[in-house]
């Protein structure tokens, strides 16, 4: 077993800590219940003793003597004894033989006395109270406590039995919960090790119970999705850079080598230098686009976010591309809603301008002569939708996610269209993610429709 697992199994578990607290709380609860019930029963006995003592002392001394003597001869006298004593403790009447030597008047006390129960003599516990009569004599009223003591013993057995069952149930539940928790942690640890080993497609297991571990696993899996996407993009970008730079650098080297071997004319050297500069410019343009995408992906531009009047941005883009649209015999139009001037987005003005500019540039590039490119703005209560639609060939369904990757070129380049470097839509996707916008590519029937949905400020 790995060292980390051994530590996991040997370390104190939070589950057992909570189980110990639960057992302690149960013990305290049962003790409190036992104390309350016992005190309640004794209190009931004391209240009865006080009531009967009051009934005796309101009588005349003669009536009290007769009443106590009569009650002491009854069958129930073994359970409820009575006694009458002189001030010096001499027994006068009743079946309580000994006077309370130290008991205070009206204060209940405990004593024991041998009584005959079913032809057997047995020492029985009693609780009694002494009350003074008008002539100085003392009347004593008692109550047998063996039934209450038996009830106390039964209650103790019930409490201990219930406590033992509760502890056993808690231990069983804690052991089961601890086992399930360790099994879950082991599964998460194994999945994590596979991810660390390079299997980025692996995810933490989710049981669907929506507990704390499930919610944590969902958050981590979402983070792993982003990490996998970023790693794949890095791999794609690295492969794209190698592929894209190979052709211009090969041309650059081949041209320079060819001029060096075959030519001695200064004009040819000048032409070769111009070609080399053009090839270098292409490489620099691609690197600049990659750096811009990296800057956006790093969220470095969030510090410049402000309220942007999006209608103004759209007008600037249309104004920039109107000459190009006229040159290509295309109709470029802007469709704004009635309250467009009041619509603002929270974002970077330059990045929003760049995203719309790239989309319009793509539409103008792929729309044939006489086609239409439309930029529209349509708000709702919670969102703002910017749509750039054209009447060009559109984008195939299986390519709509691929064109958002760096250096991916659409199949349209096979049909003679100039597809560029494959970085424009990647930049748009990065800007959309930075602004929390939803980017979607749909059929324009005919043509293509690219939609950017922003949260409304």
Topology, pairings included?
Elements (H helix, E strand, L loop, with lengths): L2 H8 L3 H44 L3 H12 L9 E4 L5 E4 L14 E9 L2 E13 L5 E7 L1 H51 L15 H51 L3 H32 L8 E4 H18 L3 E5 L8 E4 L1 H18 L5 E8 L3 E8 L33 H11 L3 E6 L4 E8 L2
Question: What does this protein structure show overall?
Answer:
This protein is α+β, with helices and mostly antiparallel strands and 457 residues long. It folds into 3 domains: 1-199, no CATH class; 212-297, Orthogonal Bundle (Helix Hairpins), CATH 1.10.287; 300-455, Histidine kinase-like ATPase, C-terminal domain (Heat Shock Protein 90, 2-Layer Sandwich), CATH 3.30.565. The protein has 9 helices and 12 strands. The protein has helices at 3-10, 14-57, 61-72, 146-196, 212-262, 266-297, 310-327, 349-366, 424-434, and strands at 82-85, 91-94, 109-117, 120-132, 138-144, 306-309, 331-335, 344-347, 372-379, 383-390, 438-443, 448-455. It has a 5-stranded antiparallel β-sheet. The radius of gyration is 48 Å and the shape is rod-shaped. The chain starts with a helix and ends with a strand. Mean pLDDT is 80; it is low at 1-12.
Shape: rod-shaped
Number of DSSP strands?
12
Largest sheet: 5 strands, antiparallel
- Which segments are poorly predicted (pLDDT under 50) over 5 or more consecutive residues? 1-12
Mean pLDDT: 80
Summarize the structure.
By secondary structure, this protein is an alpha+beta fold. The protein contains 9 helices and 12 strands.
Supply database-style keywords.
457 residues, alpha+beta, Helix Hairpins, Heat Shock Protein 90, 3 domains, 5-stranded antiparallel β-sheet, 5-stranded mixed β-sheet, 9 helices, 18% strand, rod-shaped, disordered N terminus
